[in-house]
Fold this protein.
Amino acid sequence: TVDFPGRLAAVLFCLGCPLRCPYCHNLELQDFKGRPFISWETFIEFLDNRKKLLDGIVFSGGEPLAQPDLYESIKIVKDMGFLIGLHTSGVNRDRLKQILPLLTWVGFDVKTFFEAYEERIPHSHAATIEACLDMLIASPVELEARTTLDPRVISKEELKQLAHTLAEKGVETYAIQEYRPHPAEKNPPAPADVTAFFTDKKLLAELKSLFKNFIIRRA
């Protein structure tokens, strides 16, 4: 009930992500040949038994847009009668364009303001990410942009800059999410630096004023 707003959904976590965000909470999914996984046949069998129970399926990860067979996989699930949601960081504009007609809703992770992407998010390409976001904004697909607030990646002033940019682009739903340390993380930011985003009432009021729907998610 959380990963696909307004729908009861199952989430398929795809192995592999080309990015190396310092706050990644799914480190075990970064490797394309990572932890043991279920077969596609097992997944389809799971869906067959839930056609009248689930509204939709969310392709998450990892990074779904890094999957070469994503269109074919989504088409199979769509043809079974499920709505399709997508969690993505926008790493492949051609693949997003291909699957866009099949999508109902997208949760788009905007990591930081675009000018800082390649400095702070290893292996990212800001132009590709911004192009993917613009494509979604111009489409009829329901869109939620969201940012995980890790002070190593974005400051409060930069968050305001990013929020104004998103609003000017036409984003209507924006969520800020509290950073949660992964157990394997060796040098996480200080908790006080994380909570500072959420205790700044002036900042939150400014962000709220920019969007039709403003969401705060805390652990």
